[in-house]
Specification:
Radius of gyration: 45 Å
Largest sheet: 3 strands, antiparallel
Oligomer: single chain
Distance between the termini: 127 Å
Number of domains: 2
CATH topology of the largest domain: Rhopdopsin 7-helix transmembrane proteins
CATH architecture of the largest domain: Up-down Bundle
Length: 473
């Protein structure tokens, strides 16, 4: 750089004393880290979920390749933006000195190049994604192709200017090196401001074009509600990205890309640079959510469902009205109504053996039989007759084995029984009751053949094995 150019730059840096200006909020390292890193992480997750959904659906396309390249470029830019904080990003250029400013310019060169490439790739990705929606031969598909061509030419032009701002390139950060610079690397304030404003303004115009292509699909009558929901989310996020782009353009115009009222890019540039980073991250989120959200929501909601609904109810035996039971204890000499117990077959056989052996203190059930029940041989029921009636009781059977156990499934109408541990438990209980009923009937028949029981109310007495004729059997 010649001495007149150096003198001109020094004059631009010292034309106005801005050292007393309050520090902007975007110039603090906490603001940079708090905005750039979370958005970078969230956008990377959204891109990963998009690729996961496309792989699961076996429908990868060119738009997925473009968004991967975009995410790589944007991530590199965000990393170098955070690293620039160590070289005076957010401070006055006169305070950090020219040596540190040269290091900042190196990192800013990477941020500028990745930003122009990222904005180009994102527009190409969205337009390629639209080609999946519109059929061949339609007018909107032709508009997508036109947008692809315009965006590609636009991106190539500005990306070249960002990648080669000077010849040689190191002249962008080494101002002492003789180099021919233009556009983004120019040493003229008006040219720098015009180049940045032209890129950001044309970026906003192309964003409006890309966003407007999908609007007719949202209002079309034959669009499914799920697709309309995804398009609506795309439009909402697209409008947010558009507003950030307009805000970034406004900051560039206000300070003329960090050269007004004085040449101090490290002090006036952070707001524009951070907004540009947020813009590309939100754009990747905007392009990814409508792609992976329908598949992800279907996967999550489809794995959570209710198969059966169980209701447990309690009914007092005394109010059932099926039959009345009293339990008589010979030791107590009276009746203790209101206590009933569902006994197992082992308990029934044990009680039968105890009574046959003439054991004392045995509790015998006295039953007032229902008129509808057939009478067993020998007249009324007595002794173990109550156990047989107990296990044949309708209430007990309906309580242990629900009557609708074999009904059809109302949801599937498959006509199959419910296969579960509860069903198998009910079946085992039903078999156990059947065996108990057979055992009690056999015992009753044996007692009826050896005893003579009156036809009146049931009696309880102790019986000796010798009197029943069971000795030696």
């Amino acid at each position: 750089m010649s001495s007149p150019d150096t003198a001109e730059l020094v004059r631009q840096m010292t034309a106005y004393d801005n050292s007393k200006e309050p520090r902007p909020a975007f110039n603090y390292p906490a603001t940079v880290y708090g905005l750039v890193i979370p958005f970078m992480v969230v956008s990377s997750i959204c891109v990963a979920l998009r690729l996961y959904s496309r792989i699961r659906l076996h429908c990868l396309g060119w738009d997925d390749l473009l968004i991967v390249l975009f995410r790589i470029s944007a991530t590199i830019g965000s990393i170098f933006l955070c690293l620039a904080l160590q070289d005076g990003f957010g401070d006055h250029i006169l305070q950090i000195g020219f040596i540190k400013f040269a290091k900042f310019q190196q990192k800013f060169y990477v941020c500028l190049a990745t930003y122009t490439i990222s904005t180009t790739l994102m527009k190409l990705c969205l337009l390629s994604q639209y080609l999946r929606i519109y059929e061949r031969g339609t007018r909107l598909r032709a508009v997508c192709w036109v947008g692809l061509c315009v965006s590609a030419v636009w991106g190539l032009g500005f990306s070249f200017c960002a990648l080669f701002p000077c010849f040689p390139v190191r002249g962008f950060w080494e101002w002492e090196t003789p180099a021919r610079c233009y556009g983004f690397g120019s040493k003229v304030s008006a040219e720098i401001a015009g180049t940045f404003a032209a890129h950001t303004g044309s970026n906003v115009a192309l964003d409006v074009l890309v966003l407007g292509i999908v609007v007719p699909l949202y209002f079309r009558k034959d669009t499914a509600w799920k697709q309309r929901l995804g398009i609506g989310l795309l439009l909402l996020l697209g409008v947010l990205v558009l507003l950030i782009s307009i805000w970034c353009l406004q900051t560039i115009v206000d300070h003329k890309a960090g050269t007004y009222p004085v040449l101090d890019p490290t002090w006036y540039g952070p707001k524009s640079i951070i907004l540009a980073a947020l813009e590309v991250d939100l754009a990747s989120i905007c392009a990814s959510i409508p792609t992976f959200w329908p598949h992800l929501s279907q996967t999550l909601l489809g794995s959570i469902f209710v198969t059966q609904e169980v209701h447990i109810t309690h009914q007092h035996r005394r109010l059932s009205g099926d039959s009345s039971y009293d339990i008589t204890s010979p030791g107590a000499g009276g009746v203790a109504p209101g206590h009933y117990e569902l006994q197992s077959p082992a308990a029934s056989l044990s009680r039968s053996s105890k009574e046959e052996d003439g054991g004392d203190g045995a509790i015998v059930v006295r039953v007032t039989p229902k008129p509808s029940l057939p009478k067993m041989p020998g007249g009324g029921g007595g002794g173990l007759m109550g156990l047989g009636q107990h296990y044949r009781d309708d209430f007990v059977l309906s309580s242990v084995v629900p009557p609708n156990m074999g009904m059809h499934d109302k949801e599937t109408c498959a006509g199959s029984r419910v296969s579960s541990e509860g069903q198998r438990g009910f079946e085992r209980e039903q078999e156990r009751l059947r065996l108990a009923r057979v055992g009690s009937d056999t015992s009753i028949l044996r007692r009826g053949a050896s005893n003579s029981i009156g036809s009146g109310s049931a009696r309880t007495e102790k019986t000796r094995p010798g009197r029943m004729g069971l000795t030696g059997s």
